[in-house]
Design a protein that fits this description.
CATH superfamily: Glycogen Phosphorylase B
Structural class: alpha/beta
Radius of gyration: 16 Å
CATH class: Alpha Beta
Number of helices: 8
Largest sheet: 6 strands, parallel
Strand order of the largest sheet: 3-2-1-4-5-6
Distance between the termini: 29 Å
Shape: globular
Order of helices and strands: EHEHEHEHEHEHHH
CATH topology: Rossmann fold
Length: about 180
C-alpha cells in the first residue's frame, strides 16, 4: 500500500472508528454494546446487510457515514484516536489494519486470526476476546483514558507500517524471500 504520509502530530484525535462491512461476522453489534452509554464518539464507515438493524440500536454517540472513498477513510483514520476491528470470525490480514498503522492510528481488535498477529498488544494497540463487549469496552477505556499511551501506540503503529508494510520495505522483504528460495 502506498504511504499516505505521516499524520500531522498537531492534529487532535478524538473518538473511535470502525471501517468495514456491516455484517454479523464483523462484530459491529459487539462494538455498539461496548460503547453504549460511554459517550465515546464512534464513527462507522461502511455498508452491508446489518446497517439498518445496527443503526436502530445505536446510541447518540454513534454516527454512520456509509461508504467512503479511500482518501476519506484515510482522513477519518488520521482523526480517530483508534480504529476498532471487533471481528467475530477469523480474519486473514485485513488491509484496514495496515491503513490505520500507516496513519499512525492504534488498533483495538479481536484476538483472532491475522488480527492477533498484526496487532501487538500494548505496543500498536490492544486485543480483546471475540464477542466480549465488556473486555472490548475495557480495552477502549484503557486506551482513551491514557492519552500518552494512545500517542505512543500510534507512533509504534506508524513505525510498524514503515518497517513491514511500506512499499519499498515490502518489496525488499519479498526479494529476500525469493533470493532464499532460489538459493535453496
Amino acid at each position: 500500500m502506498a504511504d499516505p504520509g505521516a499524520p500531522d502530530p498537531a492534529m487532535p484525535r478524538a473518538g473511535l472508528l470502525y471501517v468495514g462491512r456491516l455484517s454479523r461476522e464483523k462484530g459491529v453489534g459487539v462494538l455498539l454494546d461496548a460503547v453504549a452509554g460511554s459517550g465515546v464518539p464512534l464513527r462507522i464507515v461502511g455498508e452491508g446487510p446489518e446497517r439498518a438493524a445496527l443503526a436502530a440500536r445505536a446510541t447518540g454517540n454513534v454516527t454512520f457515514l456509509g461508504a467512503r472513498s479511500r482518501a476519506e477513510v484515510l482522513g477519518e483514520m488520521a482523526n480517530a484516536r483508534a480504529l476498532v476491528v471487533p471481528s467475530l470470525w477469523y480474519e486473514g490480514f485485513p488491509m484496514v489494519v495496515v491503513e490505520a498503522f500507516a496513519r499512525g492510528t492504534p488498533v483495538i481488535a479481536s484476538e483472532i486470526g491475522g488480527l492477533a498477529e498484526a496487532v501487538s498488544a500494548g505496543k500498536t494497540g490492544a486485543l480483546a476476546p471475540p464477542g466480549d463487549a465488556v473486555a472490548l469496552r475495557n480495552r477502549i477505556s484503557d486506551l482513551l483514558g491514557t492519552p500518552d499511551c494512545a500517542t505512543a501506540w500510534g507512533q509504534a503503529a506508524r513505525a510498524a507500517y514503515l518497517a513491514r508494510y511500506a512499499p519499498d520495505e515490502n518489496l525488499r522483504l519479498l526479494e529476500a524471500v525469493y533470493a532464499r528460495a532460489a538459493a535453496g
